[in-house]
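Example for tutorial group B:
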């Protein structure tokens, strides 16, 4: 579902959503938490789509970024997902992987899902974060090319543009700011 927030009731009336998996890519930026009844926007969408198995995914990056090749220098662009239905989340994660992205499940909508949802006029922490996951094989290759400041035995990948990106401590994710994407810079 990729409609402006507020149209979920119209979408709900368009079909029978019983037991159907719905991927929620909406963002409720500018909608006050009071209008949402204190709930995450995806929980409001799930309530509107009665009986659906809602999974929040593909909403933290702009469409133009999602349209790019998810393979970035041997790593895969991350897509976050969250759901209160674990089976639906695993099915969407499989779809995400088939599309070439790396799926990161953040857990329940009201927990980890809050990391990829707007609250009023504030974007959540992971919105617009273009992150890359390096698999074991690509992580070892990247480490051999450019060893980072981390312990070598852990095979952390340090992006060559360390001054403008950061390597997360789990060794799986490196951040590429949007300005690097616009400039065509990758790591």
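The residue assignment follows.
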């Amino acid at each position: 579902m990729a409609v402006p927030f507020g149209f979920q009731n119209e979408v709900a009336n368009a079909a029978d959503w019983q037991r159907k998996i719905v991927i929620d890519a909406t963002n409720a930026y500018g909608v006050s938490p009071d209008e949402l009844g204190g709930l995450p926007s995806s929980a409001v969408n799930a309530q509107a789509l009665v009986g659906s198995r809602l999974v929040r995914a593909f909403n933290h990056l702009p469409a133009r970024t999602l349209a790019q090749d998810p393979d970035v220098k041997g790593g895969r662009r991350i897509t976050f997902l969250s759901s209160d239905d674990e089976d639906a989340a695993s099915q969407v994660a499989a779809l995400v992987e088939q599309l070439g992205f790396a799926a990161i499940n953040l857990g329940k909508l009201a927990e980890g899902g809050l990391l990829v949802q707007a609250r009023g006029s504030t974007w959540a922490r992971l919105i617009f974060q273009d992150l890359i996951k390096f698999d074991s094989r690509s992580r070892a290759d990247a480490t051999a090319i450019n060893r980072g400041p981390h312990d070598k035995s852990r095979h952390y990948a340090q992006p060559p543009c360390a001054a403008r990106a950061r390597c997360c401590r789990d060794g799986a994710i490196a951040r590429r700011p949007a300005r690097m994407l616009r400039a065509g810079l990758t790591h």
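The helical segments are 8-13, 41-48, 63-66, 86-98, 136-145, 178-183. Compare this with the pattern of hydrophobic and polar residues in the output above.
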